[in-house]
Design brief:
By secondary structure, the chain is α/β, with parallel strands linked by helices. It folds into three domains: 260 residues, no CATH class; 95 residues, Translation factors (Elongation Factor Tu (Ef-tu), domain 3, Beta Barrel), CATH 2.40.30; 123 residues, Nucleotide-binding domain of ferredoxin-NADP reductase (FNR) module (Rossmann fold), CATH 3.40.50. Helix content is 46%, strand content 17%. The chain has a six-stranded antiparallel β-sheet, covered by helices on one side. A six-stranded parallel β-sheet has the order 14-13-12-11-15-16. A two-stranded antiparallel ribbon has the order 1-2. A hairpin with a 2-residue loop joins strand 5 and strand 6. Helix 2 runs parallel beside helix 4 and helix 7 runs parallel beside helix 10. The longest helix is centred in the N-terminal third of the chain and has 25 residues. 46% of the residues are buried.
Length: 502
């Protein structure tokens, strides 16, 4: 069920999904205000929303004009909607003005406080923080209301399912709830009441799901993200007052953003397309040369930005697993191009040699164990073989031999991309395909048949299955099925890489 929901959520970009989710939350808040449940005026919610979004879009266009670049209107809309829930809805011109100023500052920061194409601080948090410093207004985070708890929780669940940030959001929610509850208990509150108050009256869920998960201000590795979550939770829960600085949720998030900036390769990388080649009838590989050295590990992903006219709901940014080994001099990605491809895929696939694109992120934890003695099982669904191609190519480049079994599920033997890389690495290749016989299989590959992968089939083909470290990569439904299958077969270590919305 989760995989089914995830695949459908993946049909739209995170920008579009978050816009819809925040608009729905604003609509719920307006209805609750109109019925007297929320102690705000419904007209104030609508007017504040219009001012926040309008000023945010205007600020984005103005900053983009000054910086001679293209504005991202949908991102500006999201920033405005977030700010709506941070400042108390009002009809007073003075406070509507400070709300508009917060939106302008937030969007200006995306262009002025940026490092090599990536903004450093969460824009909405920075806008609220700056307004708080001036003393003209203060954030209230009125979204932390018991009547909005369920709608906010639903929005956070959708975001977590879409982004698969289970560990990040869960770590922050648990840590922040614990820290706040401990402080309340120390002040004399009952333990259960303290936990309830932390979850209901503090914006823990909204901060975790809507703001902490912003990808452009997250560090690239999982352990770094979890560390950031704990640090933000601690700063969030501890009250302090240092001159004009007060303990606020936005200040805590900005501390986490600065910590994240210190990790990894944070800047954008300019790439030049050097060649294209067709791997299979439906798969194309693109090779790029970077203007400066690109640091990544085999199995990690790269986020490409390709601006193009009239983008569809998938947007202008997509994440791809790198299929080349580090140090090759090129960075390659592969993509399937269906008959009804997204505007992004059409734009990327039609780029001429010499075209320039931006890599706005590199990261991921889909990494092989450092110990070369540990046997491996790699299970790929279709184009999900790309991270394995990078890992196997890196083994070949290092002259390292490992005990590797690669199970590749495809719709046709012709779709077996990177079979040459697997052969060069000495991997044993097992193929699941509806193709009725072994015709067309790479040399040495074994056809497991057309059936879906089962514990019995896998145990027969890989007798030492339980002693292997397992990795699964591909569509979410396939990855979830494979993980459950491997767990049931006794495999203790299973790492996954779901190509959500691919």
């Amino acid at each position: 069920m989760i995989a089914w929901v995830d695949e459908r959520l993946g049909r739209v970009t995170m920008y579009r999904m978050l816009t819809i989710g925040l608009l729905a939350l604003a609509a719920v808040a307006t209805v609750l205000a109109a019925t007297g449940v929320l102690f705000v005026e419904p007209l104030a919610v609508l007017v504040s929303a219009a001012v926040a979004v309008g000023a945010s879009v205007a600020g984005a266009w103005g900053a983009a004009l000054v910086c001679r670049t293209r504005p991202h209107t949908e991102s500006a809309v999201i920033t405005g909607l977030i700010l709506l829930f941070l400042f108390w809805p009002t009809l007073e011109a003075r406070y509507l003005g400070t709300l508009a100023l917060a939106a302008v500052v937030a969007n200006a920061s995306k262009y002025l406080l940026a490092w090599r194409g990536r903004h450093v601080l969460n824009p909405a948090a920075l806008g609220a923080f700056v307004i708080g410093l001036t003393g003209w207004d203060a954030s209230t985070w009125w979204v932390a209301d018991r009547w909005l708890l369920v709608p906010v929780l639903l929005l956070v669940v959708v975001i977590v399912l879409r982004t698969r940030r289970y560990a990040l959001v869960g770590t922050f929610v648990v840590a922040a709830t614990a820290f706040v509850a401990i402080r309340l208990v120390t002040g004399g509150a009952d333990a259960l009441d303290a936990v309830s108050t932390a979850l209901v009256s503090y914006p823990i869920l909204f901060l975790a799901g809507v703001m902490l998960t912003e990808p452009l201000t997250l560090p690239p590795r999982r352990w770094q993200q979890l560390l950031e979550a704990v640090v933000v939770a601690a700063v969030f829960a501890v009250p302090y007052h240092l001159g004009p600085l007060y303990s606020t949720p936005e200040a805590a998030l900005l501390v986490g953003n600065l910590l994240a900036f210190g990790f990894g390769q944070r800047g954008a990388v300019r790439l030049t397309l050097t060649r294209q080649r067709r791997l299979t009838p439906r798969t194309v590989e693109l090779a790029f040369r970077a203007d400066r050295p690109v640091r990544f590990r085999p199995g990690q992903w790269v986020e490409l930005t390709v601006p193009h006219p009239r983008p569809d709901a998938r947007g202008t940014r997509r994440v791809f697993s790198v299929s080349s080994a580090p140090g090759d001099g090129e960075l390659t990605v592969a993509l399937t191009v269906p008959e009804r491809a997204s505007t992004f895929k059409r734009a990327l696939g039609s780029l001429p040699v010499g075209a320039r694109v931006r890599a706005t992120g590199l990261g991921g934890d889909f990494l092989l164990p450092d110990d070369p003695a540990r046997p491996l099982l790699l299970v790929a669904g279709g184009i999900g073989v790309t991270p394995f191609a990078s890992q196997l190519a890196a083994l070949v480049a290092a002259g390292e031999r490992r005990d590797v079994v690669l199970v590749h599920a495809v719709t046709d033997h012709a779709d077996l991309a990177y079979a040459d890389v697997a052969a060069a690495a000495g991997a044993r290749v097992l193929v699941l395909s509806p193709t009725p016989d072994a015709d067309g299989l790479p040399a040495g590959a074994v056809h497991l048949g057309a059936r879906r992968l089962t514990p019995e089939l896998l145990a027969e083909a890989v007798p030492d299955l339980a002693g292997r470290d397992a990795y699964a990569s591909g569509p979410p439904a396939m990855v979830d099925h494979t993980r459950a299958l491997l767990r049931g077969a006794g495999v203790r270590r299973v790492r996954t890489d779901a190509f959500s919305g691919y």
